[in-house]
Amino acid sequence: MTEITRVPLQPLSKGSVSKIWLGTLVAALVGGVVAVAAQPPLVGVKTLKAGEGPNPTVADLVMVNYVGKLDNGTVFDQNKNVVMQMQGTIPGFAKALAQTQRGGKYLVKIPAKLAYGDKAAGPIPANSNLTFELEVIDFRNRAELEMQQRMMERMMQSRGGAGAPAPQGAEAPVAPGGAE
């Protein structure tokens, strides 16, 4: 039979246990602060009126009404029935659109890092947070739009309108309400 060598434990001095707990608490707090600081900026999307159906994807074209404001309330841009590619917008706007639905109205807050960052853009100063009042009218993917456009061209040709230019300003790619 073998005997285990015994090592006597030294008694802890007064206050050592509280110092160990205090050190553990400080380490946890420092870790939490580092985790928060390393977290990427987030886009805030508040639903004012719920929409219906699926969310648009990165490959979709979206028709929206919007009003863009700076933190001080200055309107820097607004537009109605504008068709835009999700990939062609600032990162924060694309992230916000991906959280929306057809027919919904939203209040979107985009931090400067996900907007134009440290560069000024027209009336938008550098390092500006942006707020948008956004209404999603409709969205479609490129394949649907191309198919719809071909169908419209065929209809015009069958009616004898071949070669006639489309009315200026008419945007047929996205029909409100998703009707085809």
What is the element layout, followed by pairings?
Layout: H1 16-38, E1 44-49, E2 60-70, E3 75-85, H2 91-97, E4 105-110, E5 130-141, H3 142-158
Antiparallel strand pairs: 1-4, 2-3, 2-5, 4-5
User: What pattern of helices and strands is seen along the backbone?
Assistant: HEEEHEEH
The share of residues in extended strands comes to 25-35%
> Could you say which overall geometry the principal axes of the C-alpha atoms support?
elongated
Query: Uncertain spans, ≥5 residues at pLDDT below 50?
Result: 166-180
- The oligomeric state is single chain
Note the gap between the termini. 88 Å
Average pLDDT works out at 82
Radius of gyration from CA coordinates: 28 Å
Structural class: alpha+beta
The profile of the biggest β sheet is: 5 strands, antiparallel
Question: What's the total number of strands?
Answer: 5
How much helix is in the residues?
25-40%
Instruction: For the largest sheet, list the strands in their spatial order.
Output: 1-4-5-2-3
**SS summary, helix count:** 3
